[in-house]
Amino acid sequence: MSQTNAALIERKNQAVARGVGLAHPHFIESAKNATLIDVEGREFIDFAGGIAVLNTGHLHPSVVAAVTEQLEKLTHTCFMVLGYEPYVEVCEKINALAPGEYEKKSALFTTGAEAVENAIKIARAHTGRTGVIAFGAGYHGRTMATLALTGKVAPYSSGMGLMPGDVYRALFPCEMHGVSVEDALASIQRIFKFDAEPCDIAAIILEPVQGEGGFYVAPKSFMKALRDLCDEHGIVLIADEVQTGAGRTGTFFAMEQMGVSADITTFAKSIAGGFPLSGIVGKAQSWIRLIQVVLVEPTVVARLPVLLP
Asked: What general EC class does the enzyme of this chain belong to (predicted)?
């Protein structure tokens, strides 16, 4: 018997945890480019793209060809145990694409939240500080650490209690909501006055264009002021480009249009055309040297002295 959306929704309700929502009452049988076909044969235009994951559309021929070629070689190995050339090639390409007139290096992960968490870890290790400034209505993920950065309680952290500490919330400039660049910068100064000194802040993290917050673009003057502020106090500026990256704003990274560059940039979602890949890219001369210490357990490093010089 042919499947129906109603029957699959009932099975979903019985088998899948309630926290995994379903925005639309349809189960998809197949997809191509921007067209979706559900299990009952109805066609839809996909305006969601898996929440900014499919800039290239469903089953892009180049993506399918690359995956097929890779599957004929191997499906998985840990790069920190045995290397493989495509990892290096991806990092080389990202280093070339990321804005900033300095040498860059990258590290790859699986999810956007994982990239953000590692960016914070590296900023903390680099500065020796623990505080992080994020912005109201910003979105950085739904793991415990990234929920602390995400500036919306409902629906993400409702009923979960307080998130991990040492995160301070500033205002994001938005003319529509009456928050000027001066107001936003003043809110950071209030944090410095009432909550944490600049010497306690490891990083300032923001989306160049807020996604979940309402698609608000950070003014260039604000980004320039943040860059100057971070340079003055030795704070790491992190651009979260998980949603804005991979061409969604007209350039590969949104920060290319801001007139300044971040110290660390996170990327994920559409970077792999629908497959789980994320990463961070940043200044080679500073934070990247900490990758081995921050991302690899010391016991693993001790067991692999030849592979990890």
From this structure: transferase
Please list, in sequence order, all residues whose beta carbon lies within 8 angstroms of the beta carbon of residue 122, skipping any fewer than 6 positions away. 236, 264, 280, 282, 287, 288, 290, 291, 294
- CA distances (Å), 152 to each of 94, 139, 199, 248, in order? 30, 7, 27, 23
Please answer whether residues 102 and 263 qualify as being in contact, where contact means their C-beta atoms are separated by less than 8 angstroms. Answer: no
Architecture of domain 5-70: Alpha-Beta Complex (3.90)
Domain 85-303 matching CATH 2.40.128.280: the answer reads no
- CA separation (Å) from 143 to 100, 118, 139, 175, 257? 29, 12, 11, 30, 29
- Check the CA dihedral 211-257-269-107 and report its sign: negative
User: What is the distance, to the nearest Å, from the Cα of residue 167 to the centroid of all Cα atoms in its chain?
Assistant: 17
DSSP 274: T
75 phi, psi to nearest 5 deg: -105, -25
d(Cα 36, Cα 251) in Å, to the nearest integer? 27
Compare 76 and 278 and report the one with higher pLDDT.
Answer: 278
pTM: 0.91
Over residues 172-192, the mean pLDDT reads 97
Residue 290: per-residue pLDDT: 53
Predicted pLDDT at 2: 73
> What are 274-309's pLDDT values in tens digits?
999 999 999 987 544 455 445 555 444 444 333 333
Mode of pairing for the β-strands spanning 131-135 and 167-170: parallel
Domains of the chain by residue range? 5-70, 85-303
In the predicted structure, residue 242 carries a pLDDT above the cut 80: yes
